[in-house]
Design goal:
The complex is a heterodimer. By secondary structure, chain A is α/β, with parallel strands linked by helices. Chain A contains 18 helices and ten strands. Chain A has two domains: 185 residues, Periplasmic binding protein-like II (D-Maltodextrin-Binding Protein, domain 2), CATH 3.40.190.10; 209 residues, Periplasmic binding protein-like II (D-Maltodextrin-Binding Protein, domain 2). By secondary structure, chain B is an all-alpha fold. Chain B contains 15 helices and two strands. In chain B, strands 1-2 form a two-stranded antiparallel ribbon. The relative contact order of chain B is 0.12. Classes of the chains: A alpha/beta, B mainly alpha. At the A-B interface, helix 3, helix 4, helix 12 and helix 17 of A face helix 7 and helix 14 of B.
């Protein structure tokens, strides 16, 4: 009997001790499409700095898994504490489920915290907010700058220089095709890659015009945008994009071919640098990014200048209403976007920082440092790449595909985007 | 008493069951009923309810009656989807049944040692992940660097475009992939049907002189009617449920040319955030599926078990 009593007391004490230790450890739940290996490093760094907080990360493919999971969780009130977001439409869809971060951010980083964020990111943070709503529902973690990457080893082999005019671009594409390479790989089955190239072109004709068009200040049928749409069609007709581009995907097909040295050029962004940090074996081109460099789209019409940098927030995070009740959630969000978590992501060359004052550290070659520095110089003057309304982005995707396929004329295609914009603005 | 019940038949025996036993029997149906209500009936009613509401830019929902249905039916994309779904059903169902039936016949009648091998090989696409299938077929369709092009270049043929990138060809290119993936399922259904054919009927047909083509068309095919009806029913439902292959290969494009109900509903609800329209579309699909299923049951009958295995 005495033995039994002793055993029961021991078990009870052990259970209480374990329970108390467990109660001391706070947990933060996070959902995102952000690459798992890099997030694991960010979480490890965070947990080292905050040993009392445990982060539980769930990775999803962006579409359809992530956006359907968010929708279902929002409807049932079971969103995690922190969610990965894109600025504009995705953030706006979940605005009612998100905490405004203004006060927390001010307390964490001081009164001028927003000024430390690059201007294009700051603009995107409030994109789509109802008139007069000055709150921030997303904290950006990483930025990106869109560009045309090229395989400099293939260019050297074929004696081609990075193009500075449209004629040089056409000549480069022809030399690449003749040499058995894919000239510029366009995954035109993906709306996002088409949008990116169109934004490069449109901002070349008139910087900021797409922003004005989506705000209703300029019609989508404006001559500059029609010209940009014609230039877009020209990229297909002039043999700059590969044949059959409309059925191709940028990921994984295009990226794999590009990394393997079968493609001469590809319109991607600063995130391409992370290829060099993927687990081996890596191709000779990807190894330390030795095979790659970038340029901006050369002027497609006489009188134009090369495309200005276009970009903005790559990924940001929002604090859900559930996360608002968990103080540890903000601690994690702050470190992930502007602290130890961000530094790990930068070291992994995942992309550029959204807050000024950070740079990648660790095992990085001079060539990568130089490219990263060029991106960072361009980021503060980047034009916006995001859309406030998903319906407008969707209409533009369809217009671009229709024009590329030759089933729609540029003017008619842009008229449909205009109609979608008017409808979206009226709904607001 | 017992003798009376036996004489009067099972109906009379049920009538005389005590009330407590009847209640107990009903209790057995409770778990299934609960599962049906919670996981099927309630979500359907919830979606039907959502289809009557619109969401404003500020996020507030308001009752809109049938406005979402009017909007959806007035959207040209809806009619592209209807056309694509008709093409999908009209082409895939009979082609899959035909090829599946022929494969089943030849495998069951003309292969012996390698029967298991052929069954497995033709069924393999059914159990392969759609992601893998879509990746492989995107590569097959790719011009210049694609898998098909590697073979076609030996006969001097150069693919200039990808069929999934051509608005006029995209839906047919996807239908081919779907047929490739699901023909193995039709084959399996027919194999099950052929295996259950009563041998005495086949022997009698042979005695009467039926051989080869005649035996297949006039004896075996009619006796496989239950399997055909099942495939027809499943084919119609499968057509309306089509989503992953289109989402992964074309995303409904280019310019919505290959949009199907699944991708259209997904875009409206999850990409554009227009839950009302997405719900209205879901209700329309549900009604169409219900109507087509009832039509089939009424016209073709509900006997879907393999021939010769019908319950007495």
């Amino acid at each position: 009997m005495r033995k039994m009593l002793f055993l029961a007391t021991t078990i009870l004490t052990a259970a209480l001790a374990a329970g108390s230790a467990w109660a001391d450890e706070k947990e933060v739940t996070v959902w995102s499409w952000f690459i798992q290996s890099t997030m694991d490093k960010s979480i490890a760094a965070f947990e080292k700095a905050h040993p009392d907080i445990k982060v539980k990360y769930t990775y999803y493919n962006y579409s359809p898994e992530y956006i359907t999971a968010l929708k279902a969780a929002a409807a049932s009130g079971s969103l995690p504490d922190v969610i990965g977001l894109q600025p504009g439409s995705l953030t706006q869809q979940y605005r009612d489920n998100l905490e405004a971060v203004n006060e927390r951010a001010e307390k964490e980083w001081g009164a001028g915290w927003a000024e430390k964020i690059f201007p294009v990111n700051r603009k995107q943070m409030q994109m789509g907010n109802p008139k007069g709503d000055k709150n921030y529902y997303i904290v950006p973690q990483e930025s990106q700058v869109l560009c045309i990457w090229y395989n400099r080893k293939i260019f050297e082999k074929l004696n081609i220089a990075a193009p500075e005019t449209y004629e040089e671009l056409k000549a480069a594409a022809k030399a690449l095709t003749d040499g058995g390479y894919i000239p510029m790989f366009q995954g035109a089955a993906d709306g996002w890659q088409n949008e990116n190239v169109f934004l490069m072109l449109a901002n070349q004709f008139s910087p900021g015009i797409v922003d004005k068009a989506q705000a209703g200040e300029t019609p989508w049928t404006a001559p500059e945008l029609v010209e940009a749409m014609k230039a877009w069609k020209g990229l297909f007709d002039d043999g700059i994009f590969q044949q059959g581009a409309l059925g191709a995907h940028a990921y994984p097909t295009g990226a794999q071919l590009f990394a393997q040295g079968k493609v001469g050029m590809m319109a991607l962004g600063s995130w391409w640098m992370q290829e060099s940090k993927f687990p081996p074996p890596l191709s000779e081109y990807v190894q330390n990014m030795e095979g790659f460099d970038f340029f901006y789209m050369p002027p497609v019409k006489q009188g134009n200048t090369a495309s200005p940098p276009v970009g903005g927030i790559d990924i940001g995070y929002g604090l859900t209403k559930n996360g608002g009740r968990n103080p540890a959630a903000w601690t994690f969000l702050a470190e992930l976007t502007n602290g130890v978590g961000l530094q790990e992501a930068l070291n992994d060359l995942n992309d550029l920082p959204a807050f000024d004052g950070h740079s990648p550290k660790g095992d990085i070659t001079d060539h990568v440092k130089e490219m990263s520095a060029r991106f960072m110089t361009d980021l503060p003057k980047a034009e916006n790449q995001r859309f406030a309304s998903p319906a407008v982005a969707e209409a533009l995707d369809n217009a671009l595909a229709g024009v590329a396929a030759g089933s729609t004329e540029p003017e008619a295609a842009l008229a449909t985007v205009q109609a979608a914009t008017e409808k979206a603005l009226a709904a607001q | 008493m017992r003798a009376e019940a036996v004489r009067a038949g099972p109906a009379a025996a049920i009538e005389r069951r005590p009330a407590s036993r009847t209640s107990t029997l009903y209790l057995f149906a409770v778990p299934a009923t609960l599962l049906f209500v919670v996981f099927i009936a309630y979500p359907i009613l919830w979606v039907a309810g959502q289809s009557l509401y619109v969401r404003s830019g500020s996020g507030a929902s308001s009752f809109a009656g049938f406005a979402n249905y009017v909007t959806v039916l007035g959207d040209p994309t809806f009619w592209i989807v209807v056309r694509n779904m008709l093409l999908w059903g009209v082409i895939t169902i009979p082609v899959q049944m035909l090829i599946g039936g022929v494969l089943a016949y030849f495998i069951e009648r003309h292969t012996h040692a390698l029967r298991g091998f052929f069954r497995t090989m033709f069924f393999l696409p059914v159990v392969t992940s759609v992601s893998v299938i879509s990746l492989v077929w995107v590569q097959i369709y790719a011009p210049y660097y694609g898998i098909a092009q590697e073979y076609l270049k030996h006969v001097g043929f150069v693919m200039m475009t990808s069929p999934i990138g051509d608005p006029k060809m995209a839906i047919y290119a996807l239908i081919i992939v779907n047929i490739w993936q699901w023909t193995g399922f039709s084959m399996l259904m027919y194999i099950a049907g052929i295996a259950n054919l009563p041998s005495e009927v086949l022997d009698a047909a042979r005695v009467d002189g039926a051989r080869g083509w005649r035996l297949a068309v006039h004896v075996i095919v009619p006796m496989l009617a239950p399997a055909t009806k099942s495939l027809l029913l499943l084919g119609v439902i499968g057509t309306l449920q089509t989503f992953p292959i289109v989402h992964l290969m074309t995303g409904g494009g280019p310019n919505r040319a290959s949009e199907v109900f699944g991708t259209f509903i997904f875009k409206q609800s999850f990409v554009l955030g227009d839950t009302g329209s997405g719900a209205a579309l879901s209700v329309i699909v549900l009604v169409v599926a219900l109507a087509l299923s009832l039509l089939q049951i009424v016209t073709l009958g509900a006997r879907l078990t393999p021939a010769g295995k019908e319950r007495p």
